[in-house]
């Protein structure tokens, strides 16, 4: 989203969502129109909240372990599952630990939970066998690393 003139968004006159009547417009063009004429203005007026600071400070909350690991494994700089690059496990540990450190520094009261049924979403079952094997290995190593961290409670469910 273009952030130039961000504060002037309220002064802009909204334009109609559809151009002059045509028989058809492409899906790509329709999405461009929605983004430029509605979404970017709506997000400029959105209210941003700090959920951790406002609501979850002292209250116990859960973090989905599979979502946490998927966030780590989907980092574009990590190169897991790409045949043209090497396996960067130390970088994966760094991403995981800095993500958790953000919660710990703010004294958040959280625990990480894993459900066995969500395992395949993290390893991207159905992708190439190389990608699945790479993500499975990385997930296993990151999971073991989480279990060995002192300040983080990890629970697994079948």
Describe the structure.
It is a single chain. With 158 residues, the protein is mainly α. It has 2 domains: 6-44, no CATH class; 51-157, no CATH class. It is 46% helix and 9% strand. The chain has helices at residues 27-44, 51-54, 65-73, 89-105, 119-123, 129-147, and strands at 61-64, 110-115, 154-157. Strands 1-2-3 form a 3-stranded parallel β-sheet. Helix 3 (65-73) crosses helix 6 and helix 4 packs across helix 6. The chain is extended. It starts with 26 loop residues before the first helix and ends with a strand. The model has no long low-confidence stretch (mean pLDDT 81). InterPro entries: PIN-like_DDX60 (IPR055124), SKI2_subfamily_helicases (IPR052431). Residues 44-156 form the ATP-dependent RNA helicase DDX60 PIN-like domain.
Give a nutshell description of this structure.
The protein is mostly helical and 158 residues long.
Topology:
Blueprint (H helix, E strand, L loop, with lengths): L26 H18 L6 H4 L6 E4 H9 L15 H17 L4 E6 L3 H5 L5 H19 L6 E4 L1
Parallel strand pairs: 1-2, 2-3
Helix pairs in contact: 3-6, 4-6
Protein name: ATP-dependent RNA helicase DDX60 PIN-like domain-containing protein
GO cellular component, one term: cytoplasm
Keywords: ATP-binding, Helicase, Hydrolase, Nucleotide-binding
* Mean pLDDT across all amino acids: 81
Alpha plus pi helix count: 6
Structural class call reads mainly alpha
User: Spans with pLDDT under 50 lasting ≥5 residues?
Assistant: none
Q: Taking strands numbered 1, 2, ... along the chain, how are they ordered across the largest sheet? A: 1-2-3
Order of helices and strands: HHEHHEHHE
What's the β-strand tally? Answer: 3
Q: What is the molecular shape?
A: extended
Gap between N and C termini: 41 Å
Largest sheet, strands/sense/barrel: 3 strands, parallel
Number of domains: 2
Q: Helical amount among residues, as a percent range? A: 40-55%
Give the DSSP E fraction (strand runs of 2 or more residues): 5-15%
Radius of gyration: 21 Å
GO molecular function, one term: hydrolase activity
InterPro entries: PIN-like_DDX60, SKI2_subfamily_helicases
Keywords: ATP-binding, Helicase, Hydrolase, Nucleotide-binding
Protein name: ATP-dependent RNA helicase DDX60 PIN-like domain-containing protein
